[in-house]
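agent> Task received from the user: take the single chain below, predict its 3D structure, and emit structure tokens. No templates, no multimer pairing.
agent> Plan: (1) validate residues, (2) run structure prediction, (3) serialize to tokens, (4) report one or two observations.
agent> Step 1 OK, no nonstandard residues flagged.
tool_call: predict_structure(input=
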Amino acid sequence: SEGVEEEKRIYILKKKKVGITLIFTSAFNDLDTYLKEHLHTITCHDLFSIKQDFYDMVRTLTGSTANLTGITELLIFRHLYHTLGMTAPVFDKSVSDGNSQLSIGKRFMGKNGRPQDPDIVIERNGAITHLLSIKNALATNSPKDFEKESEVIQNLMNKNGPNQVCSNGIVDIHRIDNIRHDQHKDFKSITVVFSKVQDRHQRAIDIIHDTYDWHRFIVLENNKNPFMEVLKRNLPLLIRVG
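)
tool_result: status=success, residues=242
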């Protein structure tokens, strides 16, 4: 009858609609499962390749990746989620196992009275223990006027030399150091850079490593070491033994 046929048609349309809405859900769930199953073996370059594949596809479909953000933070956040053994759902940008809290984009007040929103932080007992800043690439950066007054930036630029450029890596250190006060004064931090670094920016990295023992850079592209092992070396006490 016409009524039965109409019900079938509506059912088919609803099923197709559900299938369409789950396209990205399925893709991101598959990615998350892959990260979890290969937690100890996925290399730094593997993470770069996943990001690059995403960028290449977007560029193929749209011709540009301008203003495209989020995939780099997603990869590192979910890797840390599984590294810390989290199982609870993320709520309001944070997830906790009762001991540690993992947050993305959480706001903190800096020493200079300005708010900072670091990419990823791990807290225990209300204090930051580890901070991760995520960069797709290092690039030349012009500090804002109030950042130019920062002792951290002035110190690093003096060491970098008058003819050297200021990179977003140098500005990043100022922003991270700005959070290092009161109960948050002792955390370890890293900047994860997905793309390989040009020589002029590598010089700044070397200076930062020599100046601040609490911060390290990890460059993912062409780095064949397991990301988990690199985390262990650069963020002590982050990963439980055993």
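agent> Step 4: summary for the user.
The longest strand covers residues 127-135.
agent> Done.
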